[in-house]
């Protein structure tokens, strides 16, 4: 019998487990797909995240960031957004009195860092390659693994992604939609190293550049699914030609290493909690990746859940009670909905070629760049500070 069972030991689930274990609770973590071990000679993965400073501070407090930082990452000091080259908004870390805006880190590296920290806690039991075959809610909650082993816990945490088995078992519905555009991630190797991430808007979708370590970078190309399918069938040399035509000019030459396309979906759970059950991260919400806020919203969920659970522990309340868990939902649901709606508003505003709107939005970008304190506050909100 555990205090908590966390289904999903990824970037968000691992953080939840660490935080709850540091509160003195016994925690079981079920991870269906363990990441491959780190090797500095390996090329980087194509899936990366932009980690804001608030997320970094949370990971530091959980004892995971030091494991991540000793592997590989790229600090971000500048962020630029534009449609026309003469209407550019740029954010700089120095404007917020910070040395960096955040870091670009491979998702696998983040997960490995969290698992390294998990291994140091005797009150966390990690079940590797563990898939729930059955989930029954009650007092306690019971999770039966495909191996036949049963795990019981007072609190069940769904950190198992957009197709959450925990959410389904709890009977929690969702609403949302799939965007008309998809996105292609393209891993490239450049001749130089940058500390700026940028995004240029196009009527058919943005083009984005995320620097990684040692001259590697991730490009993100939003477009119609048919266009991305055609691009995916090209040779690396032909794909490079298309990138040169469609992306802003690179400061350095580059080689295409690999690519993968994926759909874009907005999903929001109708509730984040049920008696003895709580959802975090992508199990509760998925967002347009336009501004790289997905995992950062997940870490805000983690911080809020830890705050609520710690308060319950101090008062000797049941950590799985509806009143305790609803306090978590109250902290997070509106904030997540606001961020999702802002991303959608930006997405819809720029995903067209209507001339009057084009003039207005480029004027808006010019004004935003000159907004001084307002721009700084927007930047700090995005960083989570």
Helices and strands: which structural class?
Answer: alpha+beta
How far is it from the N-terminal to the C-terminal residue, by CA?
38 Å
Q: What percentage of residues falls in helices of 4 or more residues?
A: 25-40%
Listing every helix as H and every strand as E from the N terminus to the C terminus, the arrangement reads: EHEEHHEEEEHEEEEHEEEEHHEEEEHHHH
Q: Which regions have little confidence, pLDDT < 50, spanning 5+ residues?
A: none
Main sheet summary? 8 strands, mixed
Strand element count:
19
* Overall pLDDT score: 89
Backbone CA Rg: 21 Å
Please indicate the percent range of residues in DSSP E strands (runs of 2 or more): 25-35%
Estimate the global geometry from the Cα principal axes: globular
The number of helical runs is 11
Tell me what the structure shows:
This protein has 385 residues and is α+β, with helices and mostly antiparallel strands. The chain has helices spanning 13-22, 53-61, 65-69, 107-118, 165-169, 225-232, 236-246, 294-314, 322-350, 355-369, 373-383, and strands spanning 2-7, 27-31, 48-52, 74-76, 78-82, 88-92, 102-106, 124-128, 132-136, 141-145, 150-158, 174-190, 196-200, 207-211, 216-223, 254-269, 273-274, 277-279, 285-286. It has eleven helices and 19 strands. The strands form three sheets. Strands 1, 2, 8, 9, 10, 11, 17 and 18 form an eight-stranded mixed beta sheet that branches. It has an eight-stranded mixed beta sheet with strand order 6-5-13-14-15-12-16-19, with helices on both faces. A hairpin with a 4-residue loop joins strand 9 and strand 10. The longest helix has 29 residues, at 322-350. The relative contact order is 0.17.
